[in-house]
């Protein structure tokens, strides 16, 4: 079957064997027929790391009986202290449990998944839009950590996919939200989602979704004294500059967040799938490009050029 892997630091479509469930595994596994796989900013960075696995941690598809599912792209042990507390994202398995990093991901015709990672797509959600559940779950988890209330104001710094998802989750909470974005397409997407563009004021909660020193400094300075900054951006470049004086003098609370977990029986991923069903306007607002799997190299090039209007680029095997 076809899959997207890194060949000499370039995304290439290659032929690999079809996956089959592994015998004697501690949990059940199923094969998912992939219908959509989003290209994340993390994928663009991972190219430089020479990852040997098939790319893709944002994906959805169907089971052999046609059931549409989104896939929570982690395979935690389920038995360490963090897993038992619901913090699946902090499992001792670390990066080895991540699809598209430690095991084959969803940029392929088929992918092998633990049954525990499946999230049923609600009625009305097109499986070709189901890959949005993953970035939406990132925002759901972050807002659970920051404990945002409806009576609080929210600002989002960064108009990429995660920033747009954060704004939508703030709306679901019932909190007034404004967004700051660099590119016209990002601002237009926010407006389509009913999100106001940012004005100069202070906010109770500021979401840093850009992953840069400048964005972190802006987030801290936009935060009211005693407020919270939610760190949803990924700091791939390292050496991030921290606005220590501003954060300390105003006692700003910095709350990092990564991936998704669960609170009791409620998984962030399932909550995200429910929100996607409630927001049929979301896919058209943020999915700007769709490519067949064979055009993966072109799709990655488009995804890396935000100034050309790309927000979410999706591969459809």
Record the SSE blueprint.
Layout: E1 2-7, E2 10-15, E3 29-39, H1 41-46, E4 58-62, E5 68-71, H2 81-84, E6 110-114, E7 118-120, H3 133-146, E8 154-157, H4 161-173, E9 177-180, H5 184-192, E10 196-197, E11 203-208, H6 213-222, E12 223-231, H7 244-249, E13 253-256, E14 262-263, E15 266-267, H8 268-278, H9 282-286, E16 287-292, H10 296-303, E17 312-316
Parallel strand pairs: 8-9, 8-11, 9-10, 11-12, 12-13, 16-17
Antiparallel strand pairs: 1-2, 3-4, 3-6, 3-17, 4-5, 5-7, 14-15
Helix pairs in contact: 3-4, 3-8
Key features?
317 residues, alpha/beta, 7-stranded mixed β-sheet, 6-stranded parallel β-sheet, 17 strands
